[in-house]
Amino acid sequence: MNRRSRSKLPQEPIELVIEDLSHDGRGVAKWNDKVVFVQNALPGETVMAKLNRKTRSFDEALATEIQNPSPDRVDPKCEFYTLCNGCSMMHLKEEKQISFKFNTLKSNFHKMSHVEPNEWMEPLTDSHWNYRRRARLSVKWVAAKEKVLVGFREKNGRFVADMNNCQVLEKPLADLLQPLATLFESMSIKAFIPQVECSMGESNTSIIIRHMKPLSSDDHQKVVDFSHHYNLQVYLQSKGPKTIKALESYDDPLGFELKSFNLKYEFLPNDFIQVNRKMNEKMITQALHAMDIQSDDVILDLFCGLGNFTLPMAQKAAQVVGVEGDAQLVARAKHNAEINQLDQVQFYEADLTHDHSKSVWFNVPYSKVLIDPPRSGAWEILPLIAETAAKTLIYVSCHPASLARDTDRLVNELGFTLEKAGVMDMFPHTSHVESMAIFTRK
């Protein structure tokens, strides 16, 4: 925000009546004939709020006083909640968070596809606390405070939250926040460490330290000592992902298990894995139940990653083909199939935004398809899916708008029926909506 914009902000809190919730969980109010998005506010509440941003079309504010609390309001468990942007809905009852996510999905279907499923699935949920096994945390040396901050960004996005604990990180990761800050404070390049990425396996933990200047020999030794003291696998990253290098040689790879399926996975610290381990297993179980895999099924798994869905499906099907655009993840998927002794699965690297009608992996008589695309959805690949013989399509989505857009194409252009859909609470206390949709055709 420039100085001119900042000077126009009211210095005193303003009174607002909250009418609704926005797609990202903020309260929606009106002030001076303009929409105001208000953090820490719920529908039906009258709040005193401090404006922190003005634009031509809307304003943003933080509720500083709740004059008539909603019956759906709860006291946030986290002492840093009003400051930290890691969570946005901790002030709302957990069951109401689920309702918000369901309504978000339903609204997107209505607006973008004019379709509703024949049946709504029960929301998929698990523990709301200490569920994150992975996090990318910001790091900032604050000279005025003479300290390093490690954590999520503040709700205004400009600064790093001053926090020493976290209620949604798995406990071993939360316990690293203060030790990491202390380590970075002791280093000569403390002003040039912008980020640290933490990942937990079943029996070990890794961190990737992003540094914009080389470590001195003294810095290097401090990091080595730190890694030994906290039993961490440490990686250094000087520029892009290709510069990630292990601090030392590690014999015990990061890994996770799907205990319901007796499967083990190995991954690198910068590989994509689902953040919520318990919800991941529940999600896979729900997808396989919906797919009703038979021993003669031939299944196509698009955007397969390191084989998260592929390997459980391969335990039941005659053949499963996984396709993924990230070469590193394809290599990991092949390795994971090998360590689990699954022969009836093949993996291919392919950019799924391109035409693959002549690719070897496409010319297979698939009976079922599962897709788990990124936030942008699967728009480009949908016509190719329609060309297969598949009668069942499972769509796992991390963005309700792209799912609704793709549903419009699948149902209104490509001949599929939306049988079931439902939300999955993969990120409790946030507005993030994960969902699953089951499509069929005759």
Automatic annotation (TrEMBL):
GO biological process: rRNA base methylation
Active site positions: 398
SUPFAM superfamilies listed in its UniProt record: Nucleic acid-binding proteins, S-adenosyl-L-methionine-dependent methyltransferases
Keywords: 4Fe-4S, Iron, Iron-sulfur, Metal-binding, Methyltransferase, rRNA processing, S-adenosyl-L-methionine, Transferase
One Gene Ontology term of the molecular function aspect: iron ion binding
Sequence positions that bind S-adenosyl-L-methionine: 274, 303, 308, 324, 351, 372
Keyword match S-adenosyl-L-methionine: yes
UniProt xrefs under Pfam families: TRAM, tRNA_U5-meth_tr
Entry keyword annotation includes Metal-binding: yes
Record domain TRAM: where: 6-65
Ranges annotated as spanning the membrane: none
Reactions the enzyme catalyzes: uridine(1939) in 23S rRNA + S-adenosyl-L-methionine = 5-methyluridine(1939) in 23S rRNA + S-adenosyl-L-homocysteine + H(+)
Entry EC no(s): 2.1.1.190
Amino-acid positions noted as binding [4Fe-4S] cluster in the UniProt annotation, renumbered to this chain: 78, 84, 87, 166
Function: Catalyzes the formation of 5-methyl-uridine at position 1939 (m5U1939) in 23S rRNA.
HAMAP family linked: 23SrRNA_methyltr_RlmD
Similarity-based family: Belongs to the class I-like SAM-binding methyltransferase superfamily. RNA M5U methyltransferase family. RlmD subfamily.
PANTHER family attached to this UniProt entry: 23S RRNA (URACIL(1939)-C(5))-METHYLTRANSFERASE RLMD, RNA M5U METHYLTRANSFERASE
Name by which UniProt lists this protein: 23S rRNA (uracil(1939)-C(5))-methyltransferase RlmD
Gene: rlmD
